[in-house]
């Protein structure tokens, strides 16, 4: 019961599971939050001692309830990896205002919901980590990313506001700018000519996330970028 | 009827009226959009030939209807100044997810609603201007601006996506980063020790907005910043 | 003798002459600085009342002497357009440390030399403008621009330091990010497939520079970008 | 003789020694480069198996000679930490063009000299790391940092150009943005009211540098920032 607790918000076959595996391997009790409760249990069952919780980040009540349940089941949360995301691809003609609003809800407002739910637990412990998985799109809007980029830009801004407020409370908020395609079955299918070197490996991203949570408080990063060595950027 | 048409979205006693006055003075037919229809008519009555229209930028149907009415009343729109904004001040403890969502709705989704409503008119004309009034907060999140900064960051991203797509169609989208306090009665009341030189004058901002709409297409700006000469930045 | 004085530092057939023409047309006495004194007189002879001065921005003594001479010939300088530049194209393997140093000397140290030479004159007048012609490369380094981009990044930093210090003294320092190819004979020759719409017109850039010097002090820009409407950015 | 070789360029009592100690502890042969050859030997003598070399980064010949000597003494270099720096503090009135040029020479041109000297060795090995110790000043110029900020801005640009070119050759170039005061005797003396939590510890910075050299090539960072958790930024 005294093992530290990590929560992965937004678990799928790629990054989410890699984060969960890494924290489990390092001795953490791991809680997996996902929109799809059925899928959730399937993921949790693959990791020793992990548990799944409902995690629709657009639902404040559900997020609050799940973090309360995690605290009573596993103890107060020390680390959250915010991996929820949503991509609606298209330009101003192809997407609706609702698409844009949905992207900002999942990426930015969801992050605020999770922060508000977990802060009392981290403050109770006297420290914590909130690592947000972002994207290069946060830094620039392009025609086909009018919704995704805005969601990520808002998310990065929220993360920065949180980092500046919470740093002095020893709660480390960091933003990871993923700049490239992640090595997933569905990404490979979309990029048939790409080779293995063209993708970010989820385990390598997990390594960076883990490293952020190990930084000495005298030298915390707010933002790091990650891309394959071959990437043209 | 052949005078060009400018729409000011978000009219209040400061910038909005200054924009309206400037475009009216330059020979434009001016439409004023505001959330508050009663106030709207009072503003419109101060400007020769101006008309007020309902303009709640969070309401897609109302925005669509107002732009349709403007076209039938005044002709196709050439220039929009997007001046809608909303500021909920406070940090993660003081604000709610709804505050954040509301800021992003007014600043970013509202901009997309207006763009979608006006694009057919600008495309019909073969050119147009969409000038967005932004803020320095778009570039950085701070503890007390968790909602405002995220709304402005998302707005800037949307504007950039629009600019990159629409430039080649001769529709000029630009973002004005206001960095400082605007000279309004309520701002003066909040900063009693400040002198006249500490504020941005709405007429000077209007001058910059007008200048953006006059740029030759071989040298368009996407982003300009504006601040008082005395500002410490 | 009471006409205001503008100095164009770095005059060639493109931007420099367009700046000179614009300020002359607006009633300024214009001084043209160039590395090549012979060429200098040929340029000056094309503009009514303009005079040429030696202007090697890498030579502190020459810059100091030319600004002293301008003051005694034409009166104290009100506006400087810093258009000196130098591009050594190539990557780390193709260029030498001397190429890099030369780029930084012309772009950044030269700007400081000119600022130091002209500041007493502007301070004497109680106001002034120093407009720096920069480039998109200031914002990002790329393999083939290791020297040019570093020179422009350093230049932008110097301009920002100057702007923040001198704004309260009513001396307006601004940085113009040129993002695209300028319409010159030699650029056209290098891009044979490009059409007229693909280039920035020097007169349009001059219009933006002029506009910066006309901004009301309550709403000064530090940075504006300029690119052709068709540019893919 | 088969231990990997790390070169610390710019060794002093703070970061430089911390980097050297870290790489030595991890099994590297360490070469220390410093402007002051006498001091150099004193530092090297504190680290098992380390050697000092003359390292005035403003002298191309000396840098080339030292890297050639390192290769013949220790073998081809795998990792360089570029820690050379120079700060001339003051504004445009207080500093000279020579101060600015000197800062850019040490920070940016020196980095290019070192890159050119070490590249053949890294290319021969098929991989390498070049970690550059930067500063927050790289991102913004301020009145009192007209020379330092420009030097760091140019340095960051050079690093970015190198990173984009060399990544595909498996040579990892990264830039570390130090944002805060480092815990050194002389910094403490300058900030008598600061507590231990207000400073970056050299060992913590060394940890971040080490981590960058361990990143999997599928997820390399170009830029990370580091600051004390209490920092107001």
Could you explain the architecture of this structure?
In chain A, helix 3 (60-74) runs parallel beside helix 4 (97-125) and helix 4 (97-125) packs parallel to helix 5 (146-166). The model of chain A has no long low-confidence stretch (mean pLDDT 95). The first copy, chain A, has helices at 15-25, 37-45, 60-74, 97-125, 146-166, 185-190, 202-214; strands at residues 5-9, 29-34, 51-54, 77-82, 128-135, 171-178, 181-182, 199-200, 223-226. Chain A is α/β, with parallel strands linked by helices and 233 residues long. Chain A contains seven helices and nine strands. Chain A has a single domain (5-226), classed as Rossmann fold (3-Layer(aba) Sandwich). The termini of chain A are far apart.
Gyration radius of chain A (Cα, Å) is 17 Å
- Count of individual beta strands of chain A: 9
* Mean model confidence by pLDDT of chain A: 95
The best one-word shape of chain A is: globular
Distance between the termini of chain A: 45 Å
Structural class of chain A: alpha/beta
Strand content of chain A: 15-25%
CATH superfamily grouping of chain A: NAD(P)-binding Rossmann-like Domain
User: Into which percent range does the helicity of residues of chain A fall?
Assistant: 40-55%
Strand order of the largest sheet of chain A: 3-2-1-4-5-6-9
